[in-house]
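Support request, please re-run this one:
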Amino acid sequence: VTIYVLEGTPPERIYQVDAADPENAKLEYSLLPATVPFSIMESGAIFSTKKFDYEKDPHCYFLNITVRDPDGLNSTKTVNINIININDECPYFTTKQRIYRIPEEQSLGTIVANITAKDPDDEDSPSRLFYSIHSSDRRFSIDPGTGVLQVAGRIDRDALPLRLHPNISLTVRVEDSSGCGSEMEITVIIDDVNDNPPECNPSAFRKEANENTTPGTFLVDLRNYCKDIDVDPSNNQFSFTGLSGFGSNNFALESTASGRLVMTGTINFENPANPGVEVYTLTVRVQDIAHPNYSSKYPFYISFDNIIYIYIRIKPVNEFFPVFRNLSYVFSVSEITKVGSSIGRVHATDKDWPPNVITYSIVAGAGTRDYINIFWISPTKGDVRILARLDYETTQKHVFTVQASDQEKSTTASVTVNVLEVNDEEPVCSPNFFSLQIPVNLAVGTNINGFRIECQDRDSDPRSFRYFINEGNENNHFIFSPSAGSNTSRLILASRFDYESGLDTNWIYSLHVHITDDNLVSARGKTTHLVKTGTVTLSIRVIPNPTTATTTTPGFTVVTKKENIYSPSAWYVPFVITLGSLLLLGLLGYLGLLLLTWLCTHCPPRFHFTFCVSSQTMTKLNTVFDGEARDPVTGRIYEFNTRSGARRWKKRNEPLQPILAMQVMPSATENSGQGMDRAEAPRKKEPSEKRKELTAAAKPAAKPSAGQSETPGQAGLRLQKKKEESEDGGLSSPA
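Re-run finished. Output below.
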């Protein structure tokens, strides 16, 4: 019997032995060998006694099961128990190396390392593992099946960040089919190669040398302008060789490694042996010292050379010293002169021919405690400018030495700069705005309302103030006293007002008073005085004489100006006010509509009377019938007036007329020029007797004559007959 047990299975029953005895005797079970991790019960059940580990324990167990009856008869059977491996172990790396080195600029696909791992669950068979790189670096890739690490992108050791940190860290992960895995960090060190040729910037140089330059004179150091960007010092070394060109025998390189070009011959223009060349053109080759490896960047070059061009211009030598026009210069400068301003100019001449270019410079004394150089001189024009603001309180005088040079000979001159103190503060006066009222007959010479101004100036003497009215003083009615020499001054009426003759027409004066601080200015010690001005505004109202003699006392009025300023934070105030007004207006309109509706509903109808009465007229009455009844004889419905008793037969579908209308028709004898049928309103002054006559005339027509009794049937017949004869079908009596 073969039994299979999964590794990691906890102790449990794994098999039941079935045995039978013909005599039905009680059987006894035993198991050999006794050292195996299994046991058998009296019932024949085989149990495992431990949790098996396929990687540590035997993979197969053979058990001999013996069944014995009480008489000693027995039977033995072999049970083969196989332990089945499960995937319960994570793979591990077998590669021990963690650091690898490769040169830069390797081609894509270059193998860097072969990473191997093993899965304990696959002890007897090849492991089925999956390799991957867990990092953001895209310059390397790994074969997921074999673990071969390859170059996947360009690796440039000379570019950042590899230029500073040439080590690349990669995290390699291996997993089995169940996802269980392990990680290992490896480091790839990138080595520098000589893959960059030397470069020079600029590739052309222009130098000048005097004609009497002595041999050995240094001209230019080419190494300062050339470099090789390779990182490794052994790869960034280069040399200078191949100096050539017409007249190159007068020049030489100190060494192939230095790049220093020096003069070796004489090039005096007066020397007959000198070919008289003014400009020499030289070439120098720059090349790598180490073996070049340019194939990755420059596949068509085995070596790479850089050519430098050097242009040396020979200058003639002058024989005379420059001479300044003055041995010393004195400039006076205000302390508030702007930085960069010109304060003066020095000038020198040279007798050489052709004229040499003279260069000016400051050689001594142009600095202070805070600045190395406080003055600057134009090298070509000799224009002296200031580089920092001057301060009279710190230094009142600066002395420095300037030099004029023609590149060979030079001379010096002394420059003295006197710093002038400057008035740079404005007078401040109190009050700076005031309103006054004065009577028109105020006496000349009066201090107006006792008004005076007081002024202060931080950098001027109180006696330096001057007061004058700049604007608004029409006809010069006002002056300040004193007008100068004091820090206080009073407002005085200088001339009387004359409105009667029309000389004065303005009753309000707006005076703009200027206060300057130049009263004590003198030319001594100051070339230019900066005048500062303060301003005061006065509003003066002239009060005319009253029509009635009154006692007035001159006084002054303080004007308080109030200004409403809208605050954005209070936006809701106008919004709430507007909304409330609209709601209130709507409510009032609604209440008015309700009131009008109620009045129209509850007020009784009004009768409208129109009277048109004129002399010699015939009156026609239209009676309003406001009641209805049925004639008992004919059965027809007739209408009647409840007040007068007038009746008429009702027309079918004829509505009831609730309005009494009285029309007065003009007679035929009335004036033909006014024979228009029009209704006129009753005249207010019409005699009451005429109105009474109209009323009396209407009453007999409204009821039968006295002494006659008429039944409703007779009345109905009479009314029908009258209706047929009448134009309007009414029952009116003859007038």
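The chain has six domains: 2-84, 92-191, 199-315, 323-420, 428-543, 607-667+683-696+713-735. The two ends are 152 Å apart (CA to CA).
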